[in-house]
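Q: Convert this sequence to structure tokens.
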Amino acid sequence: MNMIECLCMQTLRLTSDELRQFEALAAPIRSAWKTEEVAMEYIDSREKMSVRLWQLRVSSPDLQSIAVLAGKGLSLNDVVEKVTSIDLSSVSEHDVREILYALGPDVLGLIIKNILLSVPTSKDMEQVHAYATARALFFAPLTA
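A:
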């Protein structure tokens, strides 16, 4: 790898379990990314998620419905399924930030895990990067 390729690589901030999953991926996918292990010490709960969902203000009807369902006790796996069924590229940046924060680190971690367990494409890895970056931005400072 030359200097330019190295400088252009993006860093995936993954937990130790996620790093193990990443290392099991095919070399061509792995070679495009740098990794950094993060310790997610923030302890989330359904109560904390409920408060974040209660504070949620989004204009997207799809995201509003996810917030309502998640607030009513939908399982985390079902929440992940609903979130990943929506094309977030068609949702405003504000709404994406809001829903990712409201869902919290546990849901974001499940999304990352599910993508890594599939046979991810380059586009899928961009999504892993986005979810992992959001998780680090929103929740890593709370662990300091």
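The first helix runs from residue 3 to 8.
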